[in-house]
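User: Fold both of these, please.

Assistant: Here is the first one.
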Amino acid sequence: MLAISQISLAAARHHLPGRADSARWNGQAAVRLGLHGQVKPGQLETLWDWGWRYDLPDSLTPALKTPQPDKSNPPLAGYFFGFSPPRTLAARADLHSARFEEALQASAQAILHAVEVESQTWFRDGRRLHRHTTGNLLWMTPLREEPRPGRALWPYVSGFVFNVTWDPLEARWKSVRLTAVRRYRAEYQQAFYDTLRDRVNAFDSAPGESL
């Protein structure tokens, strides 16, 4: 399963720091920002303070004044992506083995890289807003999973895509648009299943290798 949900700035500041202690920086936007390796204490708070003042549509071009905060439309910190394997793999693999976890994380990363390629932002042409592809994102994965009392432990990988992308047309940071990704979530989910299944098949066919 692939779950995609938006997270407000207030919710992200409250929930993410405790889950990012084992996460790593990813994406071309991370390279541009000089973020690499493991997420370090304080980096998230720096990002919150730096970036999310321009999330409202009227502030997407530098010529416009920064609007006042709109309490009815809280700033969007980013997008939560959750990946879990299909039940059809349960009979074939040890879902809690290190190799399966590695395959699961690699498959999730492959989909996030595909999402990055399709990432977009808005730009203003006169009075009209247009979308165009930027092809760069900032995300961290894997997030530490919170225990769920009363539920069987099922393998799960989650990541957080920040609401920021570098716009080469206007040479500035902007809010990211993942509208197409959310619209075609089913296709991305199937691509995740296919990628994971191929990795499992590769382990099964390799001599001496097994999940």
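And the second sequence with its predicted structure:
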Amino acid sequence: MINSKFLLLIISLIFINSAYAQQDSSTTKSDIYEVELISGKIYIGPITNDDGREIEMMTRNMGKMIIPKTQIENISKTNENSQSFKEFNAGIYVGWLVFPGASFLWGKTYQSNKRIFEWQAGVALPTTVTGKLTLAHGKLDKYSGISIRVWPPTIGPQFKINRLTLSAEVGPDIDNGVMGILTVGFRR
């Protein structure tokens, strides 16, 4: 009986995922720029204002920045943006038994327009190692998509809102049944 409830939860999350992605697609596209300073520092983000003397931009790491044009070596538009991360996850395995789990992952998220590709791999308990790939729609800090976990083999929706990630995945269990993994993650 727990498997049918879990499958109903997964189906509900997939419908929520679709609605979330459609809602996000109505936002306007911001061009992403790479600003290289004379000092060699590079900042990436959308330019929100340019008055001829200085630019204002929003960066992932530094937030809103105002940079005098006299300090800028080069400004180039980029269609792709990426972000490396470390993530701690706490979760629960639901299958032939219910078992808590945790993982520490390293990964990278790539954004091209509103398309997201992400990989992550790391150490986990109780499986020792884990890894997954995600295809999504959104932005680096807010997306929804589908993840395929390499080990243990599962598939399901994944959501990211700022530093928080949520996933619910299903896959084959050792007793030829269905198992699920629910996780909550925090990224740095």
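The two ends are 38 Å apart (CA to CA).
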